[in-house]
Design goal:
heterodimer, A: mainly alpha, two-stranded antiparallel sheet, 18 helices, 2 strands, globular, B: mainly alpha, 2 domains
């Protein structure tokens, strides 16, 4: 009961509600704009959150996450270009249905199923995160090491890229985390005599570089792309027959999305693809899929929004990001001095339940904004890239500079922007780099501290049941994508 | 028969191995990793009496060996399943990249704000914007708003330069 009250705190605070409304609107705009999305947008706004206290800052980021994930559906349905990667599966049926003159119906179903999926996942988050946090009390350094390894091996299956390329990218991220003074011995590593590097490389320049600047370079190669827009009159709520046809799909996809979200490193993209394919598998009309099936839209959209709450479970309970955007949220928590993990649940329940409540309210807010404002948001895509991206560059540079007031951070941002561009060009996802960078310190720290505990005996890792379980799960996570390919 | 002929034709027209993307990318990753691996041998070591666990260089060494090993796998897999050929990068990409270099030079020598303004102008122009009003909006109005926002709300002090000095004085 007390927790329920804590969840309602944002509702009674004008400031938090203002942050929530702004975050939801901003998230919708980011979601609608192809190439931006909640991850890049979250990275861009991260430096600005330094003016807010931690709860407001994290509420801002989570509301951007929830609304941005939904916003991608608007462009997926109207211009056949997913605003976010998580909305890629929505294009398959959303656009064909819109072409049949039913854009309003398609958007209505996307809005309703996203909201239900999002709310479902917050319920999962509220019940599951504290349980996982309680379990984490049993964890020592070896267990955390095994868990981090499991999280990293899950990178093999994210996105549609090669699993091995994802692992290379993840290892690259961990390697970046070793730059600077070694935390145990204070010995310099990879500093090349540059004083600014002794403190290591910050998250923000790398995140902004890999997401925003690399996207700017990608956009520079796509200037000849022409979007065909489908006209939208108004968003229509689904009819009774639509609900009868899709309620099972929405519930199934909500469950799938929440589960996929909980898995470390997986996120809305994987969830929506599985949600979509399961909707097709269980449908009485599988032939309709790809031609404008309302079930296809419901399956994909409920799953990708359900992944938002799911992905917050390992992020808050264990400090292991559940998706690319939660990696940015985790960065936000760290720079605000909040250390995720079981202690957070014991010591700051008002902070956590405030976030849960804010996510719940954000899901309701984007339903309202989406329902009444989708037509307006769709017009945002009319802003030409040649105007939009130079502005994003100015924001990226100032935002990156603002954290440490260090010009070297801008060079790092530009360097990772170029690296990120070429990584994406040759099929390497940039998401594993960020997750590797975030988990790097945990992996190395827990490994070295475990070896101290075990007196240098590596085999001792396998005598701990929880650690062994994570290692087995890691092996499965590595083998699964390879087996799937065969 | 026709498929075999097509394959032969494709093979004949294909690039030598060292010009293929998979080779170039793998080569660069391994080359950089080897340089970094070589660097790790110059890291200071903890004396054996104080050493608990592993040396500071051990973990990065292990990671670099792993990256090299995984890259070799990726390369050998590419021999069986070649990577798709990438489109040639357009001029706008290189112009944007050169603008970055100009940005670095100007930010370092003249002025940080001027560099942002000039890069915004160049990117918008190279990407096809020729209307003066929008160029003005992108290169002057928006950077000014961002500058004032960061300066007043976040209390940020930008690096000194010919324009920022006028503002601060």
């Amino acid at each position: 009961m007390e927790n329920l009250y804590l969840m309602m705190v944002p509702l009674f605070s004008a400031k938090l509600m203002l942050v929530l409304i702004f975050g939801t609107l901003f998230g919708l705009i980011l979601g609608v704009l192809p190439g931006l999305g909640p991850t890049t947008g979250g990275a861009l706004i991260l430096p600005f959150t330094m003016t807010l206290e931690p709860l407001s800052a994290i509420i801002l980021l989570t509301s951007i996450y929830c609304a941005g994930t939904y916003g991608g559906a608007i462009t997926a349905i109207l211009i056949n270009t997913p605003g976010t990667p998580a909305a890629a599966a929505t294009c398959l049926d959303g656009y064909p249905l819109a072409q049949k003159g039913e854009a309003g119906r398609a958007l209505g179903m996307a809005t309703v199923s996203s909201t239900i999926g999002g709310i479902f996942s917050v319920i999962v988050l509220v019940f599951f995160a504290p349980l996982l946090a309680q379990l984490a009390y049993e964890f020592g350094q070896p267990e955390y090491f095994a868990l981090a390894i499991f999280g990293l091996t899950m990178l093999a299956s994210i996105g549609d890229g090669s699993p091995i390329k994802n692992l290379i990218a993840g290892s690259f991220g961990i390697l970046i985390s070793t730059i600077g003074k070694d935390f145990m011995t204070s010995i310099d590593r990879f500093t090349f005599g540059i004083n600014e590097l002794t403190e290591g490389i910050g998250f923000i320049p790398v995140v902004v570089g890999l997401f925003a600047i690399s996207e700017l370079l990608t956009q520079s190669t796509m200037l000849d792309q022409v979007f065909k827009r489908v006209a939208l009159n108004a968003v229509k709520l689904p009819t009774i027959s639509d609900y009868k046809l899709t309620w099972k799909t929405i519930l199934r996809s909500s469950g799938i999305g929440s589960f996929i979200g909980v898995l470390p490193a997986e996120g809305g993209t994987v969830a929506s693809l599985i949600g979509y394919s399961e909707a097709k598998r269980w449908s009485k009309n599988p032939d309709e899929f790809g031609k404008g099936s309302i079930e296809g839209i419901a399956g994909a959209e409920a799953a990708n929004n359900a992944a938002t709450g799911g992905a917050m479970v390992p992020t808050l309970a264990l400090g292991i990001p559940g998706s690319a955007t939660t990696a940015v949220i985790l960065t936000g928590l760290i720079i605000h001095g909040v250390r995720p993990g079981p202690d957070l649940f014991r010591e700051q329940p008002e902070f956590l339940y405030g976030i849960f409540g804010a996510m719940l309210i954000s899901n309701i807010l984007f339903f309202i904004f989406g329902f009444f404002g989708a037509k307006l948001f769709a017009r945002i895509t009319l802003v030409p890239n040649k105007i939009l991206w130079p502005m994003i560059f100015a924001l990226s540079v100032c935002g990156t500079y603002s954290l440490n007031q260090s010009i070297i951070d801008i060079w790092i941002m530009l360097f990772f922007g170029v690296v990120g561009f070429f990584m994406r060009r040759y099929g390497f996802s940039v998401v594993p780099v960020i997750i590797g960078l975030i988990l790097g310190e945990l992996v190395e720290g827990t490994l070295r501290q475990s070896l101290v505990i075990f007196d240098g005996n590596w085999l001792m890792f396998f005598t701990r049941p929880i650690a062994l379980t994570f290692f087995i799960l890691a092996l499965i996570a590595l083998a699964f994508p390879l087996m799937k390919r065969k | 028969m026709k498929n075999v002929q097509n394959k032969k034709r494709a093979d004949a027209g294909s690039l030598p191995f060292f010009l293929k993307s998979s080779f170039k990318v793998s080569f660069i990753i391994i080359f950089v990793s080897l340089i970094l691996l070589f660097t790790t041998f110059s890291f200071d070591a903890v004396p054996p009496i104080l050493n608990r666990g592993i040396q500071p260089a051990t973990f990065p060494k292990g990671l670099l060996v792993l990256i090299i090993f995984l890259t070799l796998i990726v390369y050998f897999l590419s021999l069986k399943n070649p990577w798709k050929t990438e489109k040639i990068l357009p001029n706008t990409f290189f112009k944007t990249l050169y603008s970055f270099i100009l940005f670095i030079i100007i930010a370092k020598t003249l002025d940080f704000f001027l560099a942002i303004s000039l890069l915004s102008l160049l990117v918008a122009y190279f990407w096809g914007e020729t209307r003066i009003f929008y160029l003005f909006l992108v290169s002057i109005v928006f950077p000014c708003i961002v500058f004032v926002f960061f300066e007043t709300i976040l209390g940020l002090r930008f690096p000194s330069g010919i324009i920022t000095n006028i503002y601060y004085n």
